[in-house]
Please model this.
Amino acid sequence: MENREMYNEINALVGAVAKALEISEGDVVSLIEQGNLTMEMLIDDEGRNYLAVSCDERSARIYEGAIFREGDQPEADDDDDGCASGGCSCGH
Model:
């Protein structure tokens, strides 16, 4: 059993950032150590919380259950379940 405080949460965060930026988890850790990764907790126009991450020319918004990369334009769909029918990583 892991006894380090917030180990699982930090591990999940590093994994989500790696997936969002399409880099390895080791690269995420290196970027953090070098001060070359920007992370900011924000709220979008619809009141949803997300984490904005960027490094070099890559950027993404990480929502609970979805990742939007720069250039993704989700389509509006009244029948969706919150994923906006594409642009996210949920598989729709």
User: Anything to note?
Assistant: The chain has a mean pLDDT of 84. The first helix runs from residue 7 to 21.
